Amino acid sequence: PRFEQEGAFTHILLRASWRETTRTKIPFTTHPISIILAPNAIITVCAKPDLVESLLHQKIRLISENVTHSVFLALMFRIGTEFIRHIQQMIDASEDVEQTLQKSMQNRELLSLLHMEKSLIYFLTSLKGNCGIIDEQLKENHLPLTHKERSRMQADFTEMHQASDMGDVFSQILGSVGDTFGAIVSNNLNKVMKVLTALTIVLMIPTLVAGALLSGCSKVPDTIKIGVAQPLSGPLGALGQDLLNGVNLAVKELNRDGFMVDGKRVQLEVVSVDDKAEQRYGAVGVYELLSLIHL
Q1: How many angstroms separate the Cα of 249 from the Cα of each of 169, 229, 244, 252, 274?
Q2: DSSP class of residue 205?
Q3: pLDDT at 221
Q4: What is the pLDDT of residues 124-178, one digit of tens each?
């Protein structure tokens, strides 16, 4: 946002909020509106003509004989109210996402919150610039405003500032919500992995018994090692760690309940390696697992 004067002409650049109608990752954005005040006219330039039309679709009440100033002040006030309206829409949308996140095991909803947080950054940056322009005009009085017009500009500043405060509070809430539900998604995934691992181990019992008999073993071993090869570092490290946590939880519960093979209680032990989600480390991880399991 900026404020410039050249003779009888004044150029003011503000940013206004906009909700994208097409399906995009960032649902809310801001766009600059260039406003040129001439002695008998007001000119607006914007890459999105629909944005200016939406701001001026209602009738404008003239607060002074200067029509140009009246339209300009009304436009600024509506920019502020649109910011507030769009932030409220973000809040409503985030509440819907929170309901879904409580039972989610995917990152799609978390990414939705992240994109909303990006929109808020755009909003807060634009509102800070808009407030600076209005505050400078109120202090320096670059435009020859009447007392009534200055009162209206003060109302414009209050509206913009209220939108900024509202965005600040919501941004803090959104950040904490994202962290909290990130942990919930991880916990939900751990629970599923725990059940799947327990089921897998139970289904492995016949194989373990048959393998022991075919290899000439006369008795079931005291400890059975379970190999887990997952990406524990790199871009998929968090997902791999969640899967490993699920396996550890399942094994812990089975050991606590006294897991038995062929009537004998055995101790289950998890052996994990990091395959880094890369093919070259996958084969190395398998050999490493085999060596660790046969120790």
Answers
A1: 38, 16, 9, 5, 19
A2: H
A3: 77
A4: 999 999 999 899 888 888 888 888 888 999 999 999 999 999 988 888 887 776 6
Contact 254, 268 (CB under 8 A): yes
| Distance, CA of 2 to chain centre | 30
Edge-to-edge order in the sheet of strand 41-45: 2-6, 9-19, 28-38, 41-45
Q: Where are the alpha helices (DSSP H) in the chain?
A: 49-55, 67-101, 108-140, 147-214, 237-257, 279-293
- 202, two tokens: 């139970």
Residues sharing a CB contact under 8 Å with residue 49, sequence separation 6 or more, in sequence order: none
Q: What stretch of H or E contains 17?
A: strand 9-19
Report pLDDT digits (tens) over 99-111: 766 555 455 666 7
Distance CA 32, CA 126 (A): 9
Q: Rounded CA gap, 273 and 59, in Å?
A: 68
